UniProtKB/TrEMBL annotation:
It holds the Pfam family ABC_tran. Residues 5-264 form the ABC transporter domain. SUPFAM superfamilies: P-loop containing nucleoside triphosphate hydrolases. Keywords: ATP-binding, CBS domain, Nucleotide-binding, Transport. This is Glycine/betaine ABC transporter ATP-binding protein. Residues 338-362 are annotated as: Disordered. One of its GO terms (molecular function) is ATP binding. The keyword Nucleotide-binding applies.
């Protein structure tokens, strides 16, 4: 997967002598030391890349630096040190005018608070980015209507923002970002102000749109379940630093430190894990019957549990060529739902009742 966006050793320091503060951070100083001198290190040595068509989620608690990081990605904030590259172009080296051009055509942003103009219709709000670009009225209205239809707002084009629910207003904000046909979408806590049911509906909408549009998206959230649901990969931030980057399964099963482990302890594992994460990849003997119901590596955990309840043995996991790539014993499913360490471990065969083979966690 080619990288569309790259962040290279980004620092953002607010306060006196920021360049000096960066050097102190590089030499091992922490946030608290700088704060004592009246300096705030918002982002510290952040590096990552985002592949084409990927949803990359940055998550962390309030004050972790995630929103500051996002604003450096499109130049709303200038990094104290480090570089941001989009399609190989160094955004940190551009003039203000060139950067504004990039923001108007290549990078769109969806805010937490809908930021709609109350005196403009839904159509005119969705078309605003195109208006800034100088697109003729007829074309921008056509493109705005297409974006609104993608977001489920066909028929609402002539309405006013105050006639829409919160979820619908956020859809207008998303349509405005889509209408410009930007390569990169930056979404800053975009669903956080919504009620839980509407929020989940917007998550569904985004995932459905992504199947067709395949945008490159950086999504900021403080909600771990939202991050796990949306992210192809997730970066966890704490005190300005990225402490772990990986897939939802990587973070859930292999937390990098105690902070990440405590952060994920209340996650509903059944909504995240798949057969690939829990299967034993070294099956031996007759642990599973491939003639019965089987799973694939992408089978969701909840579906895997249902299959396991219907068969009297470990569930066989088959690859695209129908070859056996792993097995999932029932005990393993129970273990992954428990509070114990869920790191995948080899399974061993043990004698069961009547001499049958069963599999238990090692």
């Amino acid at each position: 997967m080619s990288a569309r966006l790259e962040a290279e050793h980004l620092f953002k320091v607010f306060g006196r002598r920021p360049d000096e503060a960066v050097e102190r951070l590089r030499q091992g100083a922490d946030r608290e030391e700088l704060r004592g001198d009246g300096t705030t290190a918002a982002v510290i040595d952040a590096s990552f890349s985002v592949g084409e068509g990927e949803i990359f989620v940055v998550m962390g608690l309030s004050g972790s630096g995630k929103s500051t990081l996002l604003r450096m990605l499109n130049g709303l904030l200038e990094p104290t040190a480090g570089r941001v590259r989009h399609d190989g172009q160094d955004l940190t080296a551009l003039t203000d005018r060139a950067l504004r051009e990039v923001r108007s055509r290549k990078i769109s942003m969806v805010f937490q608070h809908f930021a709609l103009f109350p005196h403009r219709s839904v159509r005119d709000n969705a078309a605003y980015g195109l208006e800034v670009q100088g697109v003729p009225r007829a074309e921008r209205e056509r493109r705005a209507d297409e974006a609104l239809a993608l977001c489920g707002l066909a028929g609402w084009e002539k309405s006013w923002p105050d006639e829409l629910s919160g979820g619908m207003q956020q859809r207008v904000g998303l349509a405005r970002a889509l209408a410009t046909d930007a390569d990169l979408l930056l979404m800053d806590e975009s669903f956080s102000a919504l009620d839980p049911l509407i929020r989940r509906d917007m998550q569904d909408q985004l995932l459905e749109l992504q199947k067709t549009l395949k945008k490159t998206i950086v999504f900021i959230t403080h909600d771990l379940n939202e991050a796990m649901r949306l992210g192809d990969r997730i970066a966890v931030m704490r005190d300005g630093r990225i402490v772990q980057t990986g897939t939802a399964e990587d973070i859930l099963l292999r937390p990098a430190n105690d902070y990440v482990a405590s952060f994920i302890q209340d996650v509903d594992r059944s909504r995240v894990l798949t057969a690939a994460a829990v299967m034993d990849t070294d099956p031996r003997g007759d642990e599973a019957d491939c003639a019965c119901e089987t799973a694939t590596p992408d089978t969701p955990f909840t579906e895997l549990c249902a299959i396991s309840a219907r068969v009297p043995h470990a569930v066989a996991v088959l690859g695209t060529d129908r070859a056996l790539v792993g097995v999932v014993p029932r005990q393993r499913l129970v273990g992954f739902l428990g509070d114990e360490d869920a790191e995948p471990t080899p399974c061993r065969n043990e004698g069961g009742e009547d001499g049958k083979k069963v599999i238990s966690r090692a």
